[in-house]
Amino acid sequence: MQQFPLVSVCIPSYNGEKFIAEAISSILSQTYSAIELIISDDHSSDHTIAIAQSFQTQTSIPINILTHQTLGLAENSNFCINQSQGKYIKFVYQDDILMPNCIEKMVNLAETDPDIGLVFSPREMFFLEQENINLELIAVYQQFANLHQSWSNLKSIQWGKELLEDPNLWEHPINKIGEPSTVLLRKSIFKTIAGFDPELNQLVDLDLWWRILAQFKIGFVPENLSYFRLHAQQKTCQNMLEGQAMDLNFYDKIYSHPDYQLFPPQFRSSSGIDL
């Protein structure tokens, strides 16, 4: 009997009562069944935990609900990584939804090559129903709807360093992979690289993606496998626009952190940064 590798699906939650039930339902509806669900709650003051607990009796999939004092999103995501038992880690942020075959498609690709550290795919962006669609949301949609098309030579499987040498790397949009919900990670990569950096104010996801690219192969599934919800109160949505001006901590890290010393020389020379 074929043994499928365990995938740890992680939701770092905080006051997510409005949408978290949809996120959980999409996880429990996956065509890939070898999963555990970890919900790490960052001291919510609403009904997030109660909603999550209501799913524990509805499925045979293990649902581990962890509560703690406020850590912030980066540290909470790292806490999820540390608690995970799977060969792979699949983040699903509380506003987002997975398509039913998301995990199956990503794992199938990851299993073809042990050097793959990250698999990503496009996602479908959609507006919250019955909400006034403002100019900011429209700007986000227009600028960030098809991130993968910004690469000049994206392949199904390739060494990440090829992408770090891409002539379009520093062109807008700078995050050409996407949010954590669009990514599957091989857990063993965290033996050699650190997780999300809580010291960064912006581009926390991008920092991790780039550091993975420097050491591992990258897999790409060329179809939408998740839904990314746009709404005015969403921190990620706000960060997308604000993050176009990278903070000084990120610049400093590029030139000083040991992980970035592994990057190809063209990475820095093409950045246009003079420090």
Structure explained in plain terms:
With 275 residues, this protein is an alpha/beta fold. It has a single domain, classed as Alpha-Beta Complex (Spore Coat Polysaccharide Biosynthesis Protein SpsA, Chain A). 30% of the residues lie in helices and 18% in strands. The chain has helices spanning 20-28, 48-53, 73-83, 102-110, 135-144, 160-164, 204-213, 235-242, 248-256, 265-269, and strands at residues 7-13, 35-41, 63-67, 88-91, 97-98, 116-120, 124-127, 157-159, 183-186, 217-220, 226-230. The strands form 2 sheets. It has an 8-stranded mixed beta sheet, sandwiched between helices. It has a 3-stranded mixed beta sheet with strand order 5-11-7. α2 (48-53) links the parallel β2 and β3. The radius of gyration is 18 Å and the shape is globular. The chain starts with 6 loop residues before the first strand and ends in a 6-residue tail after the last helix.
